[in-house]
Amino acid sequence: MTQDAQPKEEVTFDTFAQLDIRTGTIVEASPLKGARVPAYRLKVDFGPAIGIKQSSAQITDLYTPEGLIGEQVLGVVNFPPMHIAGWRSEVLVLGVYTEQGVVLIAPKQKTDNGMILG
């Protein structure tokens, strides 16, 4: 996916508003063994209302597990869980595709975990 990709179909604001996108801090990261595409197992703290959630993220090109600890990210916390290589992924950590790999989306300034994108 690149910046040249065709725009997606228009949606209403109500459709966007159904997504619960929050800030979280990565507290654990390790390789996801058995994944078809190299990925990491992440545990992300989304604050007291959501808690710590697990995610699978294909971000191995630009990040190391050690370098991810303490990084703040944005994630969709209200998607149904998926099983990826035997790992229960409970949230979608957001990133953008570049020629070098996926770049994680993060707030420009540190915020409390669980803050809602809006």
TrEMBL record:
InterPro entries: CsaA (IPR008231), NA-bd_OB-fold (IPR012340), tRNA-bd_dom (IPR002547), Tyrosine-tRNA_ligase_regulator (IPR051270). Residues 15-118 form the TRNA-binding domain. It holds the Pfam family tRNA_bind. GO terms for molecular function: tRNA binding. Keywords: RNA-binding, tRNA-binding. It comes from the Bacteria. CDD domains: tRNA_bind_CsaA. NCBIfam families: chap_CsaA, PRK10089.1-3, PRK10089.1-4. This is Protein secretion chaperonin. It comes from Negativicoccus succinicivorans DORA_17_25.
